[in-house]
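Session log. Operator J.P. requested a structure for one protein chain; no other inputs attached. Running the standard single-chain path with C-alpha coordinate output.
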Amino acid sequence: MKTEVPRPVRLRWFTSPQQAEFAKLALEVEGIHSTTTGADLASMLSYYGQAVTRVELYVDASDRERAEKVLSAPDTEPGRTEDWCCSYCGEPNGAAFELCWACQASVEEAADEPAARDPASNPDQERRVRIRRAVLLGILFPVPIGIYGLAMCAFKALSFGADPDLAVRRILQGTLILILVLMCIGMEDFVRLLLSMVPGTP
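Structure written below.
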Protein backbone atom coordinates (compact mmCIF):
# COMPACT_ATOMS: atom_id res chain seq x y z
CA MET A 1 0.00 0.00 0.00
CA LYS A 2 1.40 3.33 -1.04
CA THR A 3 1.89 5.79 1.81
CA GLU A 4 0.64 9.28 1.06
CA VAL A 5 3.25 11.92 1.76
CA PRO A 6 1.85 15.05 3.48
CA ARG A 7 1.93 18.03 1.15
CA PRO A 8 3.14 21.38 2.47
CA VAL A 9 0.68 24.26 2.35
CA ARG A 10 1.39 27.97 2.47
CA LEU A 11 0.59 29.32 5.90
CA ARG A 12 1.53 32.99 5.54
CA TRP A 13 3.72 35.36 3.56
CA PHE A 14 5.91 38.17 4.86
CA THR A 15 7.58 41.29 3.49
CA SER A 16 10.94 40.55 5.11
CA PRO A 17 13.08 37.45 5.78
CA GLN A 18 13.35 38.51 9.44
CA GLN A 19 9.59 38.28 9.99
CA ALA A 20 9.47 34.88 8.31
CA GLU A 21 12.36 33.59 10.43
CA PHE A 22 10.65 34.86 13.59
CA ALA A 23 7.50 32.92 12.72
CA LYS A 24 9.51 29.82 11.78
CA LEU A 25 11.31 29.82 15.14
CA ALA A 26 8.00 30.20 16.98
CA LEU A 27 6.69 27.11 15.19
CA GLU A 28 9.85 25.10 15.89
CA VAL A 29 9.49 25.79 19.61
CA GLU A 30 6.09 24.07 19.42
CA GLY A 31 7.53 21.15 17.46
CA ILE A 32 6.03 22.18 14.11
CA HIS A 33 8.32 21.76 11.11
CA SER A 34 8.16 24.60 8.57
CA THR A 35 10.08 25.87 5.57
CA THR A 36 10.46 29.26 3.89
CA THR A 37 10.90 30.21 0.25
CA GLY A 38 12.11 33.47 -1.27
CA ALA A 39 14.25 34.65 1.67
CA ASP A 40 17.46 35.05 -0.36
CA LEU A 41 15.67 36.80 -3.21
CA ALA A 42 13.87 39.11 -0.76
CA SER A 43 17.18 40.10 0.81
CA MET A 44 18.61 41.01 -2.60
CA LEU A 45 15.52 42.96 -3.66
CA SER A 46 15.05 44.78 -0.34
CA TYR A 47 16.95 47.77 -1.81
CA TYR A 48 14.02 48.43 -4.10
CA GLY A 49 11.43 48.58 -1.31
CA GLN A 50 9.00 46.27 0.42
CA ALA A 51 6.61 46.08 -2.52
CA VAL A 52 8.87 43.71 -4.45
CA THR A 53 9.83 41.40 -1.57
CA ARG A 54 7.88 38.31 -0.53
CA VAL A 55 8.86 35.41 1.75
CA GLU A 56 6.43 32.49 2.07
CA LEU A 57 6.12 30.14 5.06
CA TYR A 58 4.99 26.54 4.48
CA VAL A 59 3.89 23.80 6.90
CA ASP A 60 2.46 20.30 6.49
CA ALA A 61 -1.27 20.31 5.86
CA SER A 62 -1.82 18.28 9.03
CA ASP A 63 -0.08 20.98 11.12
CA ARG A 64 -1.81 23.96 9.57
CA GLU A 65 -4.49 24.48 12.22
CA ARG A 66 -2.04 24.16 15.10
CA ALA A 67 0.46 26.47 13.36
CA GLU A 68 -2.22 29.12 12.88
CA LYS A 69 -2.94 29.05 16.61
CA VAL A 70 0.75 29.41 17.43
CA LEU A 71 1.26 32.42 15.17
CA SER A 72 -1.99 34.01 16.32
CA ALA A 73 -0.93 33.93 19.98
CA PRO A 74 -0.15 37.43 21.36
CA ASP A 75 3.41 36.51 22.37
CA THR A 76 4.36 35.38 18.85
CA GLU A 77 2.93 38.28 16.88
CA PRO A 78 5.28 41.13 15.96
CA GLY A 79 4.60 44.39 17.78
CA ARG A 80 3.63 46.09 14.50
CA THR A 81 1.61 44.41 11.79
CA GLU A 82 1.56 47.14 9.14
CA ASP A 83 4.32 48.65 7.06
CA TRP A 84 5.10 52.32 7.70
CA CYS A 85 6.53 55.19 5.70
CA CYS A 86 9.23 57.50 7.07
CA SER A 87 8.00 61.08 7.48
CA TYR A 88 11.51 62.46 6.83
CA CYS A 89 12.66 60.75 3.65
CA GLY A 90 9.45 59.07 2.44
CA GLU A 91 11.06 55.62 2.36
CA PRO A 92 8.68 52.67 2.94
CA ASN A 93 9.74 50.32 5.75
CA GLY A 94 8.58 46.87 6.83
CA ALA A 95 6.58 46.35 9.99
CA ALA A 96 9.56 44.68 11.70
CA PHE A 97 11.76 47.78 11.39
CA GLU A 98 11.91 50.21 14.33
CA LEU A 99 14.22 52.60 12.45
CA CYS A 100 14.05 53.81 8.86
CA TRP A 101 16.74 51.93 6.92
CA ALA A 102 17.48 55.00 4.79
CA CYS A 103 17.75 57.87 7.31
CA GLN A 104 17.60 56.07 10.70
CA ALA A 105 14.54 58.04 11.88
CA SER A 106 12.49 56.11 14.45
CA VAL A 107 8.95 54.92 13.84
CA GLU A 108 7.78 57.12 16.73
CA GLU A 109 9.11 60.20 14.93
CA ALA A 110 7.32 59.13 11.78
CA ALA A 111 4.12 58.71 13.78
CA ASP A 112 4.22 62.41 14.70
CA GLU A 113 3.16 63.20 11.12
CA PRO A 114 0.46 60.67 10.14
CA ALA A 115 -0.21 62.30 6.79
CA ALA A 116 3.38 61.72 5.77
CA ARG A 117 3.07 57.94 6.07
CA ASP A 118 1.39 57.62 2.71
CA PRO A 119 3.70 58.79 -0.10
CA ALA A 120 0.72 59.15 -2.42
CA SER A 121 -0.73 61.84 -0.13
CA ASN A 122 2.48 63.88 -0.35
CA PRO A 123 3.75 64.54 -3.90
CA ASP A 124 7.21 65.60 -2.66
CA GLN A 125 7.75 62.38 -0.73
CA GLU A 126 6.42 60.28 -3.58
CA ARG A 127 8.84 62.05 -5.90
CA ARG A 128 11.76 61.41 -3.54
CA VAL A 129 10.92 57.71 -3.40
CA ARG A 130 10.86 57.54 -7.21
CA ILE A 131 14.17 59.43 -7.42
CA ARG A 132 15.85 57.09 -4.94
CA ARG A 133 14.76 53.97 -6.78
CA ALA A 134 15.67 55.44 -10.16
CA VAL A 135 19.17 56.30 -8.93
CA LEU A 136 19.67 52.84 -7.45
CA LEU A 137 18.48 51.13 -10.61
CA GLY A 138 20.57 53.46 -12.76
CA ILE A 139 23.72 52.58 -10.83
CA LEU A 140 23.20 48.89 -10.12
CA PHE A 141 22.29 47.75 -13.62
CA PRO A 142 24.49 49.69 -16.11
CA VAL A 143 27.75 49.50 -14.13
CA PRO A 144 28.14 45.68 -13.98
CA ILE A 145 26.99 45.33 -17.58
CA GLY A 146 29.40 48.03 -18.70
CA ILE A 147 32.32 46.52 -16.79
CA TYR A 148 31.53 43.10 -18.25
CA GLY A 149 31.48 44.57 -21.76
CA LEU A 150 34.80 46.35 -21.23
CA ALA A 151 36.35 43.13 -19.89
CA MET A 152 35.14 41.16 -22.91
CA CYS A 153 36.65 43.75 -25.25
CA ALA A 154 39.95 43.61 -23.36
CA PHE A 155 40.09 39.81 -23.46
CA LYS A 156 39.33 39.91 -27.17
CA ALA A 157 42.22 42.30 -27.64
CA LEU A 158 44.49 39.95 -25.68
CA SER A 159 43.62 37.12 -28.04
CA PHE A 160 45.03 39.25 -30.87
CA GLY A 161 48.31 39.78 -29.00
CA ALA A 162 47.63 43.07 -27.23
CA ASP A 163 49.74 44.11 -24.21
CA PRO A 164 48.12 42.66 -21.00
CA ASP A 165 48.99 45.75 -18.95
CA LEU A 166 47.41 47.96 -21.58
CA ALA A 167 44.25 45.83 -21.56
CA VAL A 168 43.93 46.15 -17.77
CA ARG A 169 44.44 49.90 -17.96
CA ARG A 170 41.74 50.14 -20.63
CA ILE A 171 39.30 48.27 -18.39
CA LEU A 172 40.01 50.59 -15.44
CA GLN A 173 39.81 53.70 -17.59
CA GLY A 174 36.58 52.58 -19.22
CA THR A 175 35.03 51.74 -15.84
CA LEU A 176 35.89 55.17 -14.43
CA ILE A 177 34.50 56.90 -17.51
CA LEU A 178 31.31 54.84 -17.30
CA ILE A 179 30.81 55.74 -13.63
CA LEU A 180 31.48 59.44 -14.31
CA VAL A 181 28.98 59.48 -17.18
CA LEU A 182 26.31 57.87 -15.01
CA MET A 183 27.02 60.33 -12.19
CA CYS A 184 26.73 63.29 -14.57
CA ILE A 185 23.46 62.00 -16.00
CA GLY A 186 21.90 61.49 -12.59
CA MET A 187 23.72 64.25 -10.68
CA GLU A 188 20.61 66.30 -9.94
CA ASP A 189 18.67 63.27 -8.73
CA PHE A 190 21.70 62.06 -6.78
CA VAL A 191 22.00 65.40 -4.95
CA ARG A 192 18.30 65.35 -4.16
CA LEU A 193 18.68 61.81 -2.88
CA LEU A 194 21.46 62.83 -0.50
CA LEU A 195 19.50 65.85 0.72
CA SER A 196 16.39 63.77 1.30
CA MET A 197 18.36 61.53 3.69
CA VAL A 198 19.09 64.48 6.01
CA PRO A 199 16.38 64.59 8.73
CA GLY A 200 14.43 67.83 8.65
CA THR A 201 15.33 68.67 5.04
CA PRO A 202 12.21 69.88 3.18
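Operator note: Residues 8-76 form a domain with the Alpha-Beta Plaits fold (CATH 3.30.70).
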